[in-house]
Amino acid sequence: MITDTQKTVETALLIRKPARDVYEALIDPDQTSKFWFSHGSGRLDEHQTVTWNWDMYGVSTGVKVLALVPEEKISFAWGNEGMETTVEWTLTPIDGKGTFLQITEHGINGTDDEVLGKIKDSTGGFVLVLAGLKAWLEHGIRLNLVGDRFPPEIAGQKH
């Protein structure tokens, strides 16, 4: 049996840009669409709900902003009703190096197989998001990592 403390996704990466740049890229859908989703219905604003769309997969989700601390923390709930999880993005400035961005997702429920699948999918997804964000902010490159994860030519195949 998987314990509650094990039902957590954690990943992190150093982004060699100031916290204000990283924070802005995460709350502004015009920037976030360069490395994660296709488009969002608006900027993240505390206690508001926005919609994020991944047109390449025909998927969207509601994102309820729980807390915003400029240049420090973003917290939101997302997912299907009854299967919502909470995601926290923590930004830690490192003098002369940039911002260490940590992502934690918790509140994952279901059978052990469902929990393991969600942890696997979220971990892989967030790693791609971090890599895409790093490439975008540090080099202005759109890697299209999320879109290329499941190309249509292999859709329906087991991953």
Descriptive labels:
single chain, START-like_dom_sf, ASHA1/2-like_C, Alpha-D-Glucose-1,6-Bisphosphate, Chain A, domain 4, seven-stranded antiparallel beta sheet, Polyketide cyclase, alpha+beta
Task: Describe this structure as you would to a colleague.
The protein has one domain: Alpha-D-Glucose-1,6-Bisphosphate, Chain A, domain 4. It has 159 residues and is α+β, with helices and mostly antiparallel strands. The radius of gyration is 15 Å and the shape is globular. It has a seven-stranded antiparallel beta sheet. The chain is 28% helix and 33% strand. Strand 2 and strand 3 form a beta hairpin. The model has no long low-confidence stretch (mean pLDDT 93).
Largest sheet: 7 strands, antiparallel
What is the straight-line distance between the termini?
24 Å
**Computed structural class:** alpha+beta
Total domains: 1
Q: Per the principal axes of the C-alpha atoms, what is the gross shape?
A: globular
CATH superfamily: START domain
- Rg, Cα atoms, Å: 15 Å
Strand content: 25-35%
- Helical coverage, percent range: 25-40%
> Number of DSSP strands?
7
Number of helices: 4
Residue windows where pLDDT falls under 50 for at least 5 positions = none
Corresponding CATH architecture: 2-Layer Sandwich
Quote the average pLDDT: 93
Order of strands side by side in the largest beta sheet? 1-7-6-5-4-3-2
